[in-house]
Amino acid sequence: MFDILVAGEINPDLILSGDVEPVFNQVEKLVDSAVLTIGSSSAIFACGAARLGLKVAFIGVCAEDVFGRFMLAEMSRRGVDVRSVIIVPGGSTGMGVILTRGADRAILTYPGLISALKGGDVSDSLLKQARHLHVASYFLQTGLQAGLPALFERAHALGLTTSLDTNYDPSEQWLGLDHLLAHTDIFFPNETETCSLAGTPDVPLAAQRLARKVKTLVVKLGGQGALAIKDGVRAQTAALAVKVVDTVGAGDSFDAGFMYGALHGWPLDRTLRLAAVCGGLSTRAAGGTTAQATLEEARAYGAG
User: Fold this and answer.
1) Closest by alpha carbon to 220, among 202, 236, 243, 244?
2) If we measure between CA atoms, which residue out of 36, 93, 39 comes closest to residue 64?
3) What pLDDT, in 10s, does the model give residues 103-132?
4) Long-range contacts for 117-121 (Cβ within 8 Å, ≥24 apart)?
């Protein structure tokens, strides 16, 4: 029995740090560091949840190429069960190149097989093995979009709860979510996504609007912390004070912390604090998974 089943995208990240703004006309620049690490919102979330002690299974699509083998090996090494991953012979696993400069970053993504997973690939027999279903990168997982409301409905019928982290919409259209949110138990947008989806730059107003559409809304506010609204109850927490090395995947580690508290029946404020601590601690090193916290580490920083 798994605590969480993640239906998501699979791609590594190449993270370049320093003076990373490229100059064309064949100008060569030196950067401070280059790290090949686990990428994709879904995979980083899965590793963070496993790091906290949750039992996590993953279904997605990748190829039997260098990037695919790297991802499956690294996820397995971090305790994520990848036996349900679909391997496409002759395909190409996706790839992200992240240019990071302080707390800011730019992301170049080669989709590869990111969009290949479909709702029908997630069988009832697999769902029955889990307590919760998590989906991330909605706008990149285009093959999953049409069937996702039905998948969430099937999950609910089998007794699972559901969560969604859309991540950014590259088209900036922010369309097609209302029906899905009606079947979403926990929604994890950041500040930009919240305002874009609600159609207002006013964060409190945007949160109020979105909270009417889901059972639990959790808004990540970066350096301002986070807020959550559940059944009309509101909680807010400050960000963890930590020296930031890399913010890649911090939101996914945040999600993992929140899901730990939610699956253990913790009160909303305690759950939100664990999430903020997990998100903050993940920024201590380059890459989304390198500095992810154990539960004991998170508690040492006042969570739980």
Assistant:
1) 236
2) 93
3) 678 889 899 999 999 999 999 999 999 999
4) 117/7, 117/8, 117/9, 117/59, 117/60, 117/61, 117/86, 117/141, 117/143, 117/144, 118/143, 118/144, 118/147, 119/144, 119/146, 119/147, 119/148, 119/150, 119/151, 120/147, 121/59, 121/61, 121/86
Per-residue pLDDT tens over the stretch 41-67: 999 999 999 999 999 999 999 999 999
Q: Which CA distances in Å does 74 have to 36, 78, 101, 246, 273?
A: 11, 6, 25, 19, 28
Burial of 226 (0-12, 13-18, 19+ CB in 10 A): buried
Domains and CATH numbers, the chain: 2-21+31-291 (3.40.1190.20)
